[in-house]
Write the C-alpha cells for this entry.
Amino acid sequence: MLEAFGLAFRLVVSFDPDLYEIIGLSLRVSLMALLCASLIGLPIGALVGFTRFPGRGIIIVFMNALMGMPPVVIGLLLYLMISRSGPLGALALLYTPTAMIIAQTLLILPIVAALTRQIIEDLHAEYDEQFRSLSVSRGFALVTLLADARYSLVTVVLAGFGRAIAEVGAVIIVGGNINHFTRVMTTAIALETSKGQLALAVALGIVLLVIALLVNVAAAVLRSAALRRAYV
Amino acid sequence: MSDVQHKSALLPLKVDGLHLTLGGQSLLCGIDLMIAARGVTVIMGPNGAGKSLLLRCLHGLLVPDVGQIQWNGMAMSGRVRRCQAMVFQRPVLLRRSVLANVRFAQKAHQLVDEESALAFLEDMRLADIADRPARKLSGGEQQRLALARALATRPDILFLDEPTASLDPASTRIIEDTVGFVSQRGTKVILVTHDLNQARRLADDITFLAGGKVCEQQSAEAFFSAPQSPQADDYLMGRLPEI
C-alpha cells in the first residue's frame, strides 16, 4: 500500500502525461456539464421558486426525486437514446466526451434546479411582504432575490461540480472508458483497480480528493465571506 | 405625480364592516373606522386584538373576507399602495449595505437619488454606517433603517407596526421625533403600539381594539381622560383580564 502511494506521488509530481491527460479531460467534461446544468438549472429553479402556477407542487416533487436518480440509470437511459439503434443514434454521440458531458449535465441538472428553487423560495418568503409593501415589481423582485442569494447559489454550483467530477456510473456507460479519448479519473480508477495497477488509481484518487477538498474549501470561504458581510 | 397631489387624495380613510378570517378563526369582526386626514392615529389594544392584522388589511397586504376599505372613496390599488409605506415590527432588511437598502426602496419607486438616500440616513443618525451590512446592525439601528427606507419612498401614509418594541430609549427617541416631524410635515401616520406613554406622546386620535372589534375611537385627549369602553378603561388602568 505504501509502495502504491509512493508511486502515485511520483506520478503526480513528475507531471505524468497519461495522468494529466485524464485529469484534463475530467475537468473539461465536468466543467462543461456544470456550465450547461447551471445555464438551464438556475433559471428553472429560480422561476419555480418565485412563481406560482398549477402543477407547481408536482414539478417540485419531480425535481427533488430526480436529485436522487442513480447515475447508472441516467447512463442507461442516455445510452438507449444515443446508441446506434436509439432515436438519436444518427448523431454518433456514443463513446464520445460529448455524451459524457450530456450524462453529467443530466445528473447535476436536478441538483442545481432543485436547490436553487429551495433557496429562492425561502428568500422570497422572507422578503415577500416587504416587497409588496414597497410595491416592488415582479421583475425587480426576482433580480433582487437572485442578487441577494448569490452566495448560496454559488455554493449550489460548487455542489453540482463536486457531484459531476466524482461520478462514474453514467460516464462509463456512455463514454466507454476509451484510453486517450473518454477516460476520466473515476473510470480510470475503476479500471486500474480491477487490473491491480494501484499506483495510477491511487494517484487519481489523491487528485480527486484534492479537488473535492478544494471545492469544499471554496464553499467554506464563500460562506465565511457571506457571514462576515451578513449576507446570509 | 407629485406629493401634494397624493396627500389630500387618499384621505380620509373609511373602513366599513371589515371581517377577516384566517385558519378558520375570525380575527377581525365588523371593523368600522374613519381615520382623519392629518396627524397620528394610534391603534391600541391587548395582544391578539387584531391591531397588526388591521394594519396589514389597510396597507393591502391582507385581503379581508368582507368589508370595504376606501381611501377617500378609492379602493386599494397599486397606485394607492405606492403612496403608502410600512415599517414592520421585525424589519426585513436586504442582504446588502445600509445605503443600498434605502436605494433599493427608492429604485422600486423610481426615485433614485443618492444624496436624498444619504439625507434620510442622516435623519436617522445612520449616515456614518451607510456602508455597513444592514443585517449586522443592532435592533435599534435596523428599525431606524427600516423607517429611513420607508420614508425614502416619500409616502403620504406611513404605517408603523410597533416600531419601538424592545428598542432602547435613544432609538425610541429618534423614531418618535421622526414620526412627529413627518406628521407635522403632512404625512399621515397610523401607528400600532402597546406603549401607553408613547401613545400619549404621539397620538392625535386613538382607535382601541379588543377581540377583533373596535371598542372606541376618539381623540387622544378624550381617550386618556375618559375612556368610553370598559375594555379601554381596564387597559388604561392596568387591570389584568380574566382568563
